[in-house]
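seq:
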Amino acid sequence: MPTNERRDQCCLCGKNKDQVPKLIVGLHGAVCSECIDLCNDILSSDAPAGKQPETRPIMGEIPKPREIVEFLDSYVVGQPEAKRALSVAVYNHFKRVNHPQDDGVELQKSNILLLGPTGSGKTLLAQTLAKMLHVPFAIADATALTEAGYVGEDVENILLKLYQAAEMMDPHDPKSACERGIIYVDEIDKIGRKSE
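struct:
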C-alpha cells in the first residue's frame, strides 16, 4: 500500500474513524458510511424517472443515548444532566419518526428547553448535536422575532435559514433535510412578560 493511502480516514471526505459512525476499509483505502450514503443518494437521484426510489428511514442507524452522550462529551465540557436529557430525547424522537406505529406504542413528541447562564454551553450542545446527527441547524433570536408584516424577523425567516442550511447539506433534496433540522430559539427568556 502506498504511503499516501490511509486506512484510518475516509479517502473522500478526509474524516477519521472517530468522526464517523462506520469506516469501511478496502484494499486501497477506506470510505466512511456518510460518503457511502451521499453517493447512494446521488445515484438514486440519477435513477430513471419511472423507477421509484425505495423509502428508507429518516436516519439509517439511530445512535444510542450512550453514543450521543459520548459524542457530546468529546466537544462539550460538563453539563452531564443536559447531555443525558438531550441524548434520550433525540433517541426517542428518531425512534418515533422512523417507526411511527410499531406494536401500537406511540412515543410522545417532545421539545427541549435548555436553561442556564450565559456561556454555560446551551448553544454549543445544540450545534454539536446537529453536527453528530448530520442535520441542518438554524439559530433564531427570540428578541428579534415579530409578527408577520412588522419590521424584524418572523417565522418564515427562521424556516428560510433552516432551508438554506439544508441546501448546503443536501442540495439534491433540501426539503427532506429541512424536515430533520434543528431550530434553536435563543434568548427566549427575554420576551417573557415582566411582572411589575
